[in-house]
Amino acid sequence: MTATLFINAHLFDPAQGLDELGQVRVEEGKIAAIGPQLPVEGADVVDLRGQLLTPGWIDIHTHVFTAVGDFCLPADEVGIQSGVTTVVDAGTSGTLTFPAFRETAAQTAQTRVYALIDPSLLYIATSDFIAHRLGFAVDPKNQDLDRARAVIEAHRQVIVGFKARPTVKLGEIESPTLTSALILAEEYQLPIMIHLGRFPMDGVLDPSDLLDRLRPGDIVTHTYQPRFGLFDAEGSLLPAARRALERGVLLDVGHSGSDFSFNTARLGLDQGIRPHTISTDLNIFNTEIVVDLATTMSKFLALGMTLAEVIQAVTATAARAIQKSDQLGSLQVGQEADLTMAELVEEEAELTDGRGGTLSVNQMLKVRGVCRAGQFRKIDHTPYALPHSKSDLEIRQLAWVGAEHVNEEIP
Fold first, then answer.
1. What is the pLDDT of residues 155-195, one digit of tens each?
2. Which pairing describes strands 339-352 and 52-55: parallel, antiparallel, or unpaired?
3. Closest among 197, 253, 247, 250 to 224, alpha carbons compared
4. Is-above-0.85 flag for pTM?
5. Which domains are seen in the chain, by residue range?
């Protein structure tokens, strides 16, 4: 493999305090050297003048299991084509379909793909919410801990935790999926990502009861969910949410189409409730709203977070959330050469939150390139930043109407 030398880069790794002009040399898929002036011999030279060079971005909430159901998006469109070197599929496979997930999504993508597995035997993510319509998302018979353990042990290289939708049969107070996730997460010392918000056809645990059950390192996604979330009717943080934060529970954005509100984000940020990780929850419903991870990051810059906070939320902190800090999330010699190149551009734009809210911005983060395991590619535009065909747009609009009919976009 030919070496690559990135020159004139603004090296930016907030977790390490790195914020300076410099060069990075990549050899054999790994970071070989970082410094102000490195040897050129034997290397392809890439000039990054005017660009940030950061650790490879990590999106910890995506849906990329396209082989089953019609809810997901291709991993490489959400991933490297959008400047994201690592994606985590958030629960679009249960245990029965996980071998197919690994074979068709994780092993075929150029993007590094991990999974937060749904501990249920079967979960299928579809545009018509079939897991909820048919009732198996809340059926105790859809849980089998021994079979789940066998799948986890066979696919431990890919599974980085669990996704639990805390659904219950109407009138009941125990969530079979959450119960299984708590048992398995404790056994394997892995985090649980909790979907915060309501679901079609099913009940959900009260947020306060749910939050009190979470452990240090567990992740709440849809932090700025405007309904049935972390904040009470007056906009104040729930006491249970404060207790969870004090225990070390992490907050993830999980933008999605309907589970994020600018107003709720402002309420939270004004109270000091900042996300630990920024993620997209990209799926077929929301590409026009979310677009890519860079756009979601740009929204939080406009809402008052610093560039260092935003970059750290998709690098070092994201790596820590999935227990991969030893491999990902920093610019260190010897680590795999996963790098993202971006530019902070002066650009006026009107961004949307999916719930009718708009945000005027005058700066946008734009992805300019990506290096995955030493392979560099320039990026002129990300896949969902381009106009869709009329037929594609109509399909997505129809799907969105279906989601609004049941009040929430999931999973």
1. 999 999 999 999 999 888 899 999 999 999 999 999 999 99
2. antiparallel
3. 253
4. yes
5. 3-54+336-385 (2.30.40.10), 56-326 (3.20.20.140)
